[in-house]
Amino acid sequence: MTATTGGPSLPQERRVVTAIPGPKSQELQARRSAAVAAGVGSVLPVFTTRAGGGVVEDVDGNSLIDFGSGIAVTSVGNSAEAVVRRASAQLAAFTHSCFMVTPYEGYVEVCEKLAELTPGDHAKKSALFNSGAEAVENAVKIARAYTRRQAVVVFDHGYHGRTNLTMALTAKNMPYKHSFGPFAPEVYRVPVAYPYRWLTGPERCAEEASAQAIDMIGKQIGAENVAAIVIEPLLGEGGFIEPAKGFLPRIAEFAKANGIVFVADEIQSGFCRTGQWFACEDEGIVPDLITTAKGIAGGLPLSAVTGRAEIMDAAHSGGLGGTYGGNPVACAAALGAIETMRELDLNAKARHIEEVMKPRLLELREKYEVIGDVRGRGAMLAIELVRPGSKEPAPDTTAALAKACHSEGLLVLTTGTYGNVMRFLPPLVIGEELLNEGLDILEGALAGL
Ligand SMILES: *Cc1c(COP(=O)(O)O)cnc(C)c1O
Q: How far, in Å, is the centroid of ligand 1 from the Cα of 134?
């Protein structure tokens, strides 16, 4: 590969040679402001030229340590070899035929792989789409067609996308929903077991939260009217909340007992991110349907709904699809990404990232009172920031901490209902030195708050 190639050949080093963002990025930002709608934001307006392994390079020659993976997408690294090889070959062969016009093998092969990799050994089928939101919308369509019921149950702090139905499913007003209503009907929200913020404490959280959720479903909707319960097994945008152990199995059992389709939204947590193929495996959950996207195709747009064959087949022929859904280049990329996950054992890599990062984050919590909680699994980890001596969320501190990290060349993302969670989503192929250097920067930034 030449020196101008990104991917694994990019020098794996942090390099800060200008202010962040630098002068060339600032020039581009001025052009962007004139041409791009203001509603589309960016975490850090440095303009990317190359990326790979654990770094992102910008137009000013800075090289940032990547703790974001483009929001949990480039788990196999940017421009991973197998992704580039397979997608390039497909690009040269044909770019599109529309699976609904003339089909192609890559689409079928991705569906076969999804059947193999997702939990449960029952007969499974899949349908492919472009974005995560589209997958969630289609999971709801399928669940409604199967059950002939309408209501959908979602949870506090849940995030499922930005289209009209998925905005309704998403909990947080700002920035996702504000001024964009009215929202789709027949969506009901119930409590989730958020151990750090459960009023009676983490020990009783799973039992009380599941009892409350189930009681609300029965009293306010009627279980017999519920088509689907949709939940992220590890909540992403809501703040990397791990539902207290026992909560998910209780909700899944309730769904099963009442003929409700249990949908695991693993768009952020799936594909090796938490050290398992899917986060719900940690509690032995076998979802009826599972939605995937983000990490599935090494950066190309692809999403899927996978689940029990009899549920997936409930929608009439022609009822599911879309012009670009399961694009052949994206399918080729997904096959390359899955090949990489298997060959490099990225589940083991994710678990190793946790082993390196979590003890250091826990040490930081002992040292810095602003860190109220450390949580997450694998390479999906977070710290929740609070006012010292309380649990009051500290969004300003979180923003200041992110800014300090950015200026030192560490790309971090914030999240959470209260805007007070800093999340860490490094590519699973990141080197250990970069990982530790990133944590050093974080510690320096905490010390300088
Ligand atoms: C990102 C995300 C979505 C939406 O995916 P898009 O590709 O942005 O539409 C849905 N659910 C979860 C859990 C996500 O993290």
A: 9
267 in ligand 1 pocket by Cβ < 6 Å? yes
Instruction: State whether the beta carbon of 265 lies less than 6 angstroms from ligand 1.
Output: yes
Q: For residue 2, is it within any domain?
A: no
In tens, the pLDDT along 376-408 reads 999 999 999 999 999 999 999 999 999 999 999
pLDDT in tens, 21-48: 999 999 999 999 999 999 999 999 999 9
- What predicted TM-score, i.e. pTM, was given to this entire model? 0.97
Same domain for 377 and 335: no
Q: Which of 295, 311, 343 is the last residue of a domain?
A: 343
Looking up residue 393, the CATH number of its domain turns out to be 3.90.1150.10
Query: How many domains does the chain divide into?
Result: 2
Protein residue closest via CA to atom 8 of ligand 1 = 132
Tell me which DSSP letter residue 220 carries: I
* Amino acid at site 432: E
Q: Cα of 132 to ligand 1 centre, how many Å?
A: 4
Which atom of ligand 1 is nearest the CA belonging to 266? 13
CA pair distance 300, 129, nearest whole angstrom? 12
Measured in angstroms, how far is the CA atom of residue 36 from the centroid of ligand 1? 22
What is the crossing angle of helices 205-216 and 247-257, to 10°? Answer: 30
| Measured CA angle at 187 (ends 384, 274), to 5 deg | 35
Closest by alpha carbon to 66, among 75, 204, 338, 80? 75
Give the position, in ligand 1's atom list, of the atom nearest the Cα of 303.
7
Q: Which two tokens stand for residue 269?
A: 């947590």
